[in-house]
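Posting this for the archive.
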Amino acid sequence: MKREKSEALFEKAKKYFPGGVNSPVRAFRSVGGTPLFIQKGKGSHIWDADGNEFIDYCGSWGPLILGHANVKVVDAIKKTVENGSSFGAPTALENDLAELILNNNKYIQKIRFVSSGTEAVMSAIRLARGYTKRNKILKFEGCYHGHSDSLLVKAGSGLVTFGNTSSAGVPESFVNETIVVALNNEEAVKQAFAEFKDQIACVIIEPIPANNGLLLQRKEYLQFLRDICTENHTLLIFDEVINGFRIGFDGAAGYYKIQPDIITYGKIIGGGLPVGMYGASAEIMSNISPEGDVYQAGTLSGNPVAMAAGIAQLTECLKPKFYEELERKTQLLIDLIFKNFKFQISNFKIYSIGSIFWIAFTDKEVVRSAEEIDADSMKYFRVLHKELLERGIYLGPSGYEVGFVCEAHTEEDLMKTAKAFAEALEIAMK
């Protein structure tokens, strides 16, 4: 595979950006080699600066559920931007996208648009603290909620800990307000509520954890969190930035039929443009400024171009059987991959839900917590990723990241991918 232009662009980028990138995972450090500089995308395919073509299962890390440069999304963007790209004032498009979402998602009554998933989560945490008049939050090891200070905290050595910062620059005072426990451990959550009685403002979880592997949780566990939060007058936040509108229009809340107090969204609602959103009951949302005293603002919140792209994309997601067809394609891809094996392999799994999948080198039937992921297994993914690139298949450059199937993927794409996987795996497992 030719990489001369990508390599030259990366050398130039290192003069301008830390590590040559504007987001760490793009640097290819987990898989080695030079990051590919992508030049264009159409449908399920992308092309890099050297002209290499790939079937893409990253999809800009999830938002491109229709594929790259979808005609309806592109047309909506063009039509809107011709009238201006930003006003810092309300537009009818904000109303239109909000109406589309709220009319088809019964788990939220009012929303606030922001510009990223990180911003949505940060705002939801502040809202929970303002509403409950409490300071502490409880999060789970293995769930990622963006790079705001109070959430860049990893578990310490105990069952229930204040943990340690996972980034320089985060003050100890922030760490001391964040309780970290392991996923899928009811006793740890009970102990945290006992130890910090009447102090926990919210419990935040990815109901479908998809930032550190695909750590599918039991419905009973999520219901346990709902119940214990209710008992302790603590708000339950579902962070659905990745899975929201991906497994269904009403996300994990609808999938598991569990009502959280606040939900955060992002990715898909912007049609590939920067966007985030958080929503809750009208009563909880009434605490946000200018109606309430929880302050949150944003110059580009509700950006008209992003709103138009979101309307175009989410309208397509509401087509009959849209999500069923995405899930069918995902399962077909997985079935084809295993069917193409010409050898026995016991420590290779593909976990999936809806159109999200995760490749894991493990012999476990299910992986529900970060502690169950074997870090040493990433050596296999490193080889697999390289061999797949050589065969025209693009995955996110980390074995901890999930993949996504989009509407534009064809059965020909899936068959080609399965054949490439069989060849690449045979090399990776030697």
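The mean pLDDT is 94. The two ends are 22 Å apart (CA to CA).
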